[in-house]
Each structure stands twice: as C-alpha cells, then as structure tokens.
Amino acid sequence: MNSNKILEISLIKKPEFRLDLSKINWDCFFENCISKKRSEATVIDGSRKKPFEEFFSVKQNNEYPYDFPSHFYSQENLDKRKSLKKIVFQGDLREVDFLGFKSKDAHILINGHVGNYVGCMMQTGSITIKGSAGHFVGAMMSGGTLIVEGDVGNYAGANLTGEMEGMVGGYLSVKGNAGNNFCRRMRRGFVFVLGDVGDFFANDMIAGSAVVGGTVGKLWGYGMRRGTIVFAKHQVVSPHVFKETYHDFSSYWGLLKPVIESFNGPFPSLVNVLPKRFVGDLAFGGKGECLLPRNTA
Known about the structure:
This protein is mainly beta. The chain has helices spanning 26-34, 75-79, 250-264, and strands spanning 6-11, 19-20, 42-45, 48-51, 56-61, 85-90, 96-97, 106-111, 126-129, 142-148, 168-174, 188-193, 209-212, 228-231, 242-245, 276-280, 288-292. Helix content is 10%, strand content 28%. 42% of the residues are buried. The model has no long low-confidence stretch (mean pLDDT 87).
C-alpha cells in the first residue's frame, strides 16, 4: 500500500547544460523506488545520456511535512488514495526541462522554480509549482491540474512547434503573469491567470475557456474559432475583429461564474452584473467569445 509514501527528490549536482527528463516514466519510477528496485532512469545533459542518480538524490518519507495544494485532498483523490503517487522536488530546477512530461496519476510538488516544458502533455494527476516556470508550461496537456504560484514564460497551454492543437483538457492555473502566445491553439480545458498576459494571447484558439485577472498585450484573440475569454478586472480594448452582442447568456454565465470563483474567489467587477459580451474572429465569422466587466470596481 503506497497511500502514505512520498518520494522526496533533491537536485544535488548542477548540469553542464540543461537536464532533459522527458524519458522518465514517473509512474514506473515511483513504483520502483517504493519497492526498492534498481532504477534505470536516465536524463539527458545537453546531448549526453546520464544516470538520474548523478544529479538527484531520492528518499522516502511517510509523513506529510509538505504543503500540497487543497485539491490534493479533494474527495475524488481521497477515494483513490491507494493509487496516488506523491513526489516532492527540492532545489533550484530552473535548468531542468520536461519535468512531468506525459505524466499520469502522479502528484508532483515542486518547492521552487523549474525550467521549460513542465507538465507538457500531462494526462492526469497534478503538478504544483511553488515558484515560477519557463516556457511551454502545460503545452498540449490533456488532463490533470497544473498550478504555478509564480510566473510562466511564453507558450503556456499552447501547441508545440509544428503541432496543430494546444492543450486539449485539464486545468492550468497561474497565480503570477504569463508571457506571449498564452493558450495559442487551445482546444479544450480551463486556464486561469491572476496577473497579466503578454502578446498574441489566445491566437487561433479552437475552444476552451481562459480567464485573465490582469491586463493583456497586443493582438490578442486573432484567429479564434470558438472558446471563451474572460477579463475579470480590466475593461481591455476589444480588437476590431470582435463585435458586442446583446443576447441573453445569463444561464451560461451562471455555470461559468462559480468555476471562475473557485480559482480566486469572487471578482468584485463580476459579482452583481453580467459582463459585456463580444463575439468574433475568423474575420467575424468565428464563434470566439470575449466577456468584459461592465465596471472595474
């Protein structure tokens, strides 16, 4: 029974270049460590394959001295506690990439900053980052929960270069700011940014929902097909490819508003009045939707 087992992994050696962890299956890694089997896990330092143990120490802990997020203790997770795999990373991981790549079932807590591609293509489970993260955070993720308490770089929740779709499911929450191309080509899922987002936000968005608590850069929403963007605090200038509509969407808003509040509590500007609704792009023929507060109280 692994319900109380936690793996604590600490960075003990600085890489020569950047560490690529994309070859590690975290489910198998956890089971092997818990059962004390020999680990064959490898990392890539620059272009050279090296043993995982050269850079990281691993120890087991049966207690709960770690600050796991509240969703970890949800009823859904409690019902599946026997199968939970809990991994805690310690140290400055800003030169570590692809942590949690294609992760399934594992619940990963990162006590610090981390590099690029964290949570890329993750499928289930959760990743919580107590610091900031690099580029392509949650890119093409299909499920699970990814929480970043700091900032993220460019292309979070977006598609990888050459791919046609960004994230297709799951929840991505950023408590800080997000860089350029946030949610580019997003297909499904829900994203929340408490701070500001950079340029080209939600470009070519296919579907899904995105909430922004701060301001936005230039050229956002261009090429949207469907999907919903909500600006929770600021009356940003709507691009010319969006036009205001006056249809009653109170029923839909009644479903969306509680989800928004679950991430950060109520936004005063959205409490007692419906936001303004704009629809557009694909040169006005698209069904992209943008909701703006009527006031900024």
